[in-house]
Amino acid sequence: MISTPNRRMDISSLLVRPALYLAMLIILMNAGLSLKSAARSSDLRDLAASIEGGERIDPVYLVDFAHSRRDYVSHVTCSDASTRAVNTVLLAAIEVITSTGGTNAHGMTKIGLDALVARLMCNPLDGNAWAGFAALNSAMVGLTDKALQALKLSGWTTPNEGWVLSARLGLETKLYLNGASGYEDQYSADLRRFVTYGAPKQVATTFVDMPSDVQALMKPLIESQSVDRKKMMLAEVDRLGVIFATAGMK
User: Fold this and answer.
1) pLDDT digits (tens, 9 = 90+) for 143-158
2) What is the DSSP string of 186-207?
3) For tag attachment on the chain, is the N or C end more exposed, with fewer CB atoms within 10 Å?
4) Phi and psi of 179, rounded to 5°?
5) pLDDT tens digits, 77-90
6) What is the distance between the terminal CA atoms of the chain, rounded to a whole angstrom?
7) How far apart are CA 245 and CA 180, in angstroms?
8) ∠ CA 123-157-52 to the nearest 5 degrees?
9) Where do runs of H (alpha helix) occur along 53-81?
10) Which residue has better confidence, 2 or 97?
11) DSSP class of residue 49?
């Protein structure tokens, strides 16, 4: 026969067990959510690193990934290294959507701007974020003083980092060809940096792909390079089927 004290212990144990089970379940659920969040962050950073490293990303996958992570903007914190990754992925996805005439370009651009503002509030020295803000702001409302200032801040904070410089040059070249003004000194400085520090083959390829107006700007910069560096550039230009001597002439 079970004694009264033992019986009380058994009843108490039965009453405590559900609470313990519930606590364990909550802990496991929270751990699962943390692991899931960490996995999402890891996937995000891995994709961003690939983009920043110049790897070719399947455009369909990139856009789908960006759509699936668009809610991430609202809960990242300044201490979270994913803020940079969010911007890298969103900017790349917006470029794909815009270039392919996607129907959700405006909506994704708005999300991208929100993410860039959040990033810059956390890290105002992120030159890529300033360049991205200038590009998206111009796309949304046209060239403004705010966009021009963002371009200048990008050049000031990140003057020579190759992939940021390339992104900034893309916008500056578009503005130049559209007859915009107010940023000419910045554009000249970035072109000089690109020709002076960029990989010779990349500089040559860019030169070949540019319209004659921009070739005319790049030509004296190429000619001012060291003998060996200039030789490599001209050899690549020639290999691509362009006559350097007559390039840039109308």
Assistant:
1) 888 888 998 999 999 8
2) HHHHHHHHHHHHS-HHHHHHHH
3) N
4) 80, 20
5) 776 677 888 888 88
6) 109
7) 28
8) 75
9) 59-68
10) 97
11) H
